[in-house]
Design goal:
The chain is an all-alpha fold. Helix content is about 75%, strand content about 0%.
């Protein structure tokens, strides 16, 4: 297994299996933040998180992230929450289906 395979197999959060809708959602959100920020240290931190070298918690602990949260547009947040809810439902549906198939 090469390091690229290890990164693809490393969950960003233990509760989101790699490749699940929630994992994909989080990866896309972090990649978007990485592209959006002009702060080089934050860009590097986000790249390291996506590469499996650092944790999402480290991002949440930054001043940059706290400022980003403070400036969140409520309408955009509600839309994102709806998308995340749909992704979570898909993940739950997938998990249920997988459990049923394994028990057969």
């Amino acid at each position: 297994m090469n390091s690229s395979d290890e990164v693809k197999n490393s969950p960003l959060l233990a509760s989101f299996p790699v490749g699940s809708p929630m994992d994909d959602f989080l990866r896309k959100a972090l990649a978007g933040m990485k592209e959006e920020t002009e702060d080089q240290k934050t860009k590097e931190l986000l790249a390291d998180v996506l590469a499996g070298k650092r944790s999402v918690q480290e991002v949440a602990d930054t001043r940059w992230f706290r400022q980003k949260l403070a400036a969140v547009d409520t309408e955009a947040l509600l839309k994102t929450s709806k998308e995340a809810g749909e992704a979570a439902k898909e993940q739950g549906d997938f998990t249920t289906l997988l459990a049923r198939k394994q028990s057969q």
